[in-house]
């Protein structure tokens, strides 16, 4: 046998608690830090190869590796820093950029993304208007 639900009583109970539920939800939503995630790695190629790591999280620090895919040069490893922008003074070539982001200097809260780029060095003096 199934019990009947007293919908009026259930509604009144919900009505009595709704304000408290909304306050708790508001605190959770407004105080929650975003999940650590790398959205993209952007590159700019005028002069040095500039790498910008676009990420979401809280208390983030960033690191970057530049790997020469031809194997002619050693991997350049730039350590963690507060800025999400890195500058590499390298020759034209094919590279893999590996970007790292961590939260609150914790190794446990670290994410990484790789991106392949073909970099052609363009100096400001070489540009024609």
Give keywords.
single chain, 129 residues, alpha+beta, Immunoglobulin-like, four-stranded antiparallel sheet, 7 strands, 43% strand
Short description:
With 129 residues, the protein is α+β, with helices and mostly antiparallel strands.
Structural description of this entry:
This protein is of the alpha+beta class and 129 residues long. The protein is rod-shaped, with a radius of gyration of 25 Å. The mean pLDDT is 87. It contains 1 helix and 7 strands. A hairpin with a 4-residue loop joins strand 1 and strand 2 (49-56). It has a domain at 37-124: Immunoglobulins (Immunoglobulin-like).
Task: Note the overall shape.
Answer: rod-shaped
Report how far the terminal alpha carbons are from each other. Answer: 85 Å
Give the mean pLDDT.
87
- Helix % is 10-25%
Named at the architecture level, the CATH assignment of the domain at 37-124 is: Sandwich
The DSSP helix count reads 1
Strand content: 35-45%
Q: Uncertain regions: pLDDT < 50 for 5+ in a row?
A: none
SSE string: HEEEEEEE
- Strand order in the largest sheet: 4-3-6-7
Supply the CATH superfamily name of the domain at 37-124.
Answer: Immunoglobulins
Secondary-structure map:
Elements: H1 7-31, E1 37-44, E2 49-56, E3 60-68, E4 76-81, E5 85-88, E6 93-103, E7 110-119
Antiparallel strand pairs: 1-2, 2-5, 3-4, 3-6, 6-7
